[in-house]
Write the structure tokens for this entry.
Amino acid sequence: MILFDGVAVRYGAGPEVLRGISFTLAPGSFHFLVGPSGAGKSSLLKLIYLGLRPAAGRVELFGRDVSVLRRSDYPGMRRRIGVVFQDFRLIEHLSAMDNVALPLRIAGVRESDIKRHVPELLGWVGLKHHLDALPATLSGGQQQRVAIARAVISRPSLLLADEPTGNVDDTIGVRLMYLFEELNKMGTTVVIATHNEGLVGRFSHRQLRIANGTVRLVESPADAADGAAPHPETSGPEASGPETSDPATSPPAASEPIERDAREASA
Amino acid sequence: MLRFRTDLPLDRDSTARFLPWIIGFMVYLAMIAATVALVVDHVTQRWQRDLSGQLTVELPAVADEDEAAHKQRVEDAVDEIADTNGILGTRPLDQAEVRRLLSPWLGDQAGEELGVALPDLIAVSVQPGIRPNLSELAERLQSASPGAAIDDHASFNAGAMGFLNTIEVLAVSVLALVLAATAGVVAFVARAGLSIHRRIVEIVHLVGAHDSYIARQFQAQAFRYGFIGALIGTLLAAATLLLAAVFAARDAAPIGPAVQAFQPWMIWPLILIPLAAVLIAMITVRIAVLTALRRMAY
């Protein structure tokens, strides 16, 4: 799914922010990207969602070397990636409904399908009554959920979330984590960047730890104990779940537990 | 009116707010310039057609020539002219007509009180589309009437046509400049829009949009503003032409001949101008946006 080999990142003529980064993430895996603020987590995510080119090394995404991608190849790759940005990056003049519908409209999905699936997903994240709300009228947590809904509406093969719990309280943060786990069970590869060690400790997932510009892979204690999941370095593509599906024909299958979460959130 | 759903709030840009009026003004100028070009071209062609169908043969006066010899000399010259291929007809001007033609230079009593012998003039009509062999005719005329000269109005024709052609070229140049300026303004507004909405453009890119998806949103705006502008410009131009027709109907209006030269068929090429303006706006925006997007890092 993702392969980094000796990757370095440098902004302009500045020093290397990241150097010698090498790791492999298997399809269907779930990883935390952990490190203190400013360690380079966002830069690493940018490399994955093609928002940044490496200064050195090789990055492979979905089996393709990104250094040889043409500009016209980017949209196709990006449509397989859902990104939850740290600052949400919602479009201010668009309603929650239109923000979430954006990836579908870009992909050319029919309006009738959009009108059916987007409200369903927004209901799934507890925003059923905020379809027409502009981002400015929503709370931080609600905006976060709109951003998450936008990232997952097209059932991406890979979900990247940059500090997705950074703007919400612990309760909502944990609920969002349940949402990501739900997606992971449906086959999406998930990478969550966070500096919230408490949150990481509550979930048994592997960690990519960034410090001093380098990345170290850490097995979670639970995984190490039961060996339930394959090691990302050695796991093959057969370990993955379904890579993609048509959002127009595949409504969120696990709506029940999320709606329960949403009810809990509003309680 | 003509609202399209867009991800970029292009309608809110202050730079784009006046675009329909700017396009409207440009379309107005272009339509007026095109009207001038069409009318001048029409007048030029008509004038050229009229002048190319006429020749004047001048037979200089012969001193002490009696009436019979004079008459014979003119008849011989007329016969020579009539024998030339492409000649439709000849009409010798009588002395009164010649005197009238010369009066601006010699006064009303030209030739009588001054004692100046007047030449004979023969008006010759030429078949349309046929150019008679004038040098051969001039040689034959020398035997009938020595010193005979042929005036095909070439020098006057060349001067007048040169003047009209200059006006026409100027009008076409104004038309081209106006359309080029329209393209420039539209491209500037599109680039400004891209800069203003750079953040949204980045988001749209990151969720998988092709450059053409973003360009289409700008094109939709260009179509909308271009259409409104074209409508404004067309209405203003139509009002101007109607006013010109009203003024032309008055006596002594200097624009009368120009308005009379306006032909109903000229409406069709004029209508192409607002349509071209909309098309130019859309194509320019597409090129400007795609070029700018290709320079963006993401």
